[in-house]
Amino acid sequence: MKIRKCSALFFTACLSLVFSSVLTAQEIEALKGVETAKAIFDVRNGNPQKTARILHLIQQTYNDLQAAGKKPDFKVVFMGPSVKLLSSNREGFSEEDRKPLDAIVESISGLSKAGIGMEICRVAMKSAEVDPETVSGEITPVDNGWVSSIGYQLQGYALLPLY
Predict the structure, then answer these.
(1) What is the pTM of this model?
(2) What is the distance between the terminal CA atoms of the chain, rounded to a whole angstrom?
(3) What is the spatial order of strands in the sheet that 117-121 belongs to?
(4) pLDDT per residue over 14-67, tens digit each?
(5) Are 121 and 75 in contact (CB under 8 A)?
């Protein structure tokens, strides 16, 4: 029985190495000649759980690029329904939304510490009736998120829409 368990663990470890080698080779291929990875993340999702995962993945992507020896230059622009998730006013959210909303607050802090620029659209804030005073100072208000998105793309940032 122990031999079977050891064999299964060994097999799993071997598969992990094979797949991680393939992924590493693909990542290296995709990043050939890249020194700086410029990306703008257009975040519009109003679901607290999904947005918490999105922000976690942005941080992971930043870390993965750094580990690959690349310099990530990320911008995150919050527009549409996502702006409501950035307010400290939790009216209208269920008790089960509290945990992902707390995770969003933590992610915002981590992204800011990493030097990732974040902006929030005032048009969306006005539409969602989000008081600017309830949004973290780590996020810069901009008059129109689409203007930011256009500007960053014209500067060579890859657009990653996250709706």
Answers:
(1) 0.81
(2) 49
(3) 140-142, 117-121, 71-78, 36-43, 158-162
(4) 334 433 444 454 566 878 888 899 999 999 999 999 999 999 999 999 999 999
(5) no
